[in-house]
User: What shape does this take?
Amino acid sequence: MNRITQILNIKYPIVQAPMSWLTDAHLVASVADAGGLGFLAPHAGQTTNPSSNEEVLDRMRNESVRSKP
Assistant: This one.
């Protein structure tokens, strides 16, 4: 364990970058489950324009990280 893993409370010093249109909640959850730190960009993983920010938030809430709160 090094300082960055201690500060971020992660197992490995892996940080997955937020990439709009490529990153989705499933990828972020998988990275976190593997011991890294995942980031989700606004409107990430969307192939269509959402009608509202609430619609995007609802989609992202449906995919949750399984091993960390």
User: Anything to note?
Assistant: The mean pLDDT is 78. The CA atoms of residues 28 and 38 lie 5 Å apart. The chain is about 35% helix and 5% strand. The first strand starts at residue 15 and ends at 16.
